[in-house]
């Protein structure tokens, strides 16, 4: 006997009904709601390689933005600075950079000479002698010559005091003076000035007017530094003194100072 029986109703010949045989199991698949289908699609998460790469790139981009924001906040102090301060800072940075570049080139030149010299010991000795002469010029223990200026200060009324002489020396040093001599006294880093009757004391030695400054340096820098408005020349003229500046291609600074041996300081290379 078949599982499905077809019965034809005599009154309605066109209708045909299907009757399930007893004992057939029902459909086992349950019906899911919309929320359940959404949860099933989100968990467990399915991450592809492309999504991982995009997430990593976004993380790196965010980190870079955070660092940039922090760097901008560190420079906030410069934003509030005055224009004169910024110009001064830039000038100091430029000067420092130039000095460092010059020192770098000088050291590189010395290294090249040492590397290429056939007699490295002789080259090292030569550089040592040159360094000793340079230090001797700065210390005033050896004579020096080179281009520079001669500054002559006439003081007929005796109005020039030690502070004006000190200002003049400082202005010359700031303009690049490498060796200075006032009359017969060598001026070095620790030179001091004092007022004396009828003159000025330079390291305890009295010098009288006219005060003759022999200065070695670049004349194009030294002379303008003294003649700037409100500078040394104008200040001395207000004191009823006369200051004249003369350039020269050869200035001789031959006043010497005795070398002093330090009492306590010793070389740290031993």
Automatic annotation (TrEMBL):
It comes from the Bacteria. The chain crosses the membrane at residues 50-69. Residues 103-114 have a biased composition (Basic and acidic residues). Keywords: Membrane, Transmembrane, Transmembrane helix. Residues 1-33, 103-124 are annotated as: Disordered. Belongs to the UPF0749 family. This is Membrane protein. It comes from Streptomyces xanthochromogenes. The lineage of its organism: Bacteria, Bacillati, Actinomycetota, Actinomycetes, Kitasatosporales.
């Amino acid at each position: 006997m078949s599982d499905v029986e077809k019965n034809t109703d005599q009154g309605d010949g066109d209708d045909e009904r299907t009757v399930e045989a007893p004992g057939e199991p029902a459909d086992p698949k349950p019906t899911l709601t919309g929320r359940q289908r959404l949860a099933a699609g989100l968990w467990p998460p399915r991450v592809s390689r492309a999504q991982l790469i995009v997430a990593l790139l976004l993380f790196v981009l965010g980190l870079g933005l955070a660092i940039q924001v922090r760097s901008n906040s560190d420079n906030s102090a410069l934003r509030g600075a005055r224009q004169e301060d910024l110009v001064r800072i830039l000038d100091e940075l430029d000067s420092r950079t130039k000095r460092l570049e010059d020192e770098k080139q000088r050291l590189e030149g010395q290294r090249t000479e040492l590397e290429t010299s056939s007699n490295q010991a002789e080259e090292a000795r030569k550089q040592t002698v040159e360094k000793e002469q340079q230090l001797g010029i700065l210390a005033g223990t050896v004579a020096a010559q080179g281009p520079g200026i001669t500054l002559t200060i006439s003081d007929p009324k005796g109005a020039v005091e030690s502070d004006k002489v000190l200002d003049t020396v400082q202005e010359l040093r700031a303009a690049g003076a490498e060796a200075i001599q006032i009359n017969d006294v060598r001026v070095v880093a620790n030179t001091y000035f004092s007022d004396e009757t009828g003159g000025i004391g330079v390291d305890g030695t009295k010098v009288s007017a006219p005060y003759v400054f022999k200065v070695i340096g670049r004349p194009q820098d030294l002379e303008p530094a003294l003649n700037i408005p409100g500078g040394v020349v104008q200040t001395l003229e207000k004191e009823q003194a006369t200051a004249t500046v003369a350039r020269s291609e050869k200035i001789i600074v031959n006043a010497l100072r005795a070398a002093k041996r330090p009492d306590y300081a010793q070389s740290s290379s031993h």
